[in-house]
Amino acid sequence: MLAYILRRLLFILPTLLGILLINFAIIQAAPGGPVEQTLARLEGLDGGVGGRIAGNAGDVAASGSAYRGAQGLDPAIVAEIEQRFGFDKPAHERFLIMLGNYARLDFGQSFFRNIDVTSLIAEKLPVSISLGLWSTLILYLVSIPLGVAKAVRHGTPFDLWSSTLIIVGHAVPPFLFAMLLIILFSGGSYLSWFPLRGLTSEGFAELSPVRQVLDYLWHMALPITALVAGGFATLTLLTKNSFLDEIGKQYVVTARAKGLAERGVLYGHVFRNAMLVIIAGMPAALLGIFLTGSLLIEVIFSLDGIGLLSFESALNRDYPVVFGTLFIFTLFGLLLKLVSDVLCALIDPRIDFSSRGH
Length: 358
Known about the structure:
This protein is mostly helical and 358 residues long. 70% of the residues lie in helices and 0% in strands.
């Protein structure tokens, strides 16, 4: 087991390198980079307003720059802007410099926010941790027992009606359910039980510890409800199908024939084997909630988290933030996958990683 863990940890390095290299190459071909945006601003153009870049082909030739936004600008100004963003060096040299900085856990400074990337991510992380941790916890605490109950009562009215409810919930998009919650419970048209925005209230620091916890949960109630409402279907049905598959196997028939109680068969034998599929999918589920799953929820409830930060940084071509978040969450995902493999081995001793060659 230890040898396998060490091999997996070593394998993380080339995986990270490959992911960064592919994304870096794609970024080079993407138009509208930070240099071009800055040049457009200097020309008095606001992309959001829809202004046009002035100048002509002769201006481009005179400036000696390939940037369309550099038309009519002093070449020295263009060169200074390129140097500020690090684009005065060739692409391969910029990539090697980035790797050297990342090896020291230096993710650079945001192009447009005037703050280093590490501090920026740390500032947004509490929101993403709150949404991701609580959503995943609630999903697993509800879906796994519900899936087991559905498997044991397969074909009964309980199985039918619970399947109908969770499939209907799955069909409603989280952002639509969030809007419904706001209308009903956050001063939209009916009740004003919950706050509409933010992670905490004003004056949070002056509250007692108990009041702080209650205030935090008060703010998290609607976003987390909206985030998890449609997420029960996949995990619940996966748990049910895993249990049904295990219940029909020979070892369960043998255990029952030996007179073992049904509860002992279910939780002593079936549960352990059925959970392997669930645990294997945990890293992807958790990472999905952290990054993509919470983006619209963050926007609707004015929660400034990692999902919104990554989206805005991609739109603004804020490359240090884009690559910093990519590096951190790719590393996080790879480590989570390793943890899930170890958990699978602990749950099922038949899994022997020492015999694997990779």
